[in-house]
Amino acid sequence: MVKIGIVTGSTRKARVNMQVAEWVKDFAEKMDLEAEFEIVDIKDYDFPMFNEDLPPAMANKQYSTDAINAWSKKIDELDGYIFITPEYNKSVTASLKNAIDYIGPEWGNKSASIVGYGSTLAVAATLSLRQILGNLNVATVAPFGAFSLFTDFENMSTFKPAEIHNATIENVVTTTVNWAKGLKTIR
To answer: Where is the signal peptide (predicted)?
Structure first.
């Protein structure tokens, strides 16, 4: 059994990110996979802006606040991730990048997939996140989920994905779980 964290990518009060995360979790739990899924909401950790004296890889998991230590423990216990990211200015949100940057070794040798949404299907945010995760030794899998603010949300505020996405999301979840199982053998 592997543990997959569905990591939210927004902390805004009016975010739709949680709706997408909950939908992906419900979808994944209906699949017959040997995996546990949980939502890991970055908003729960209330990080200050990253301004540490040492980079995470050099900090030896001795972080400056209880919130960062809790974040470290949560990410460390997971075998893989499904990131739910909106696209802001052709990239990921500052809050998601900040959360990723706070820790280092906990991410490595695990699988991750990306489910994005935005006016242009979050393609640029997905590519940006793949590069960020690659630097942390995270194996990002393909395909990625891509939802449109114009067609998969009512009034850009209520998530109502078209059924055409189901096959892609099934592939996203299955591939993430399979790679998580494989990568668990090298950790």
So the answer is: none
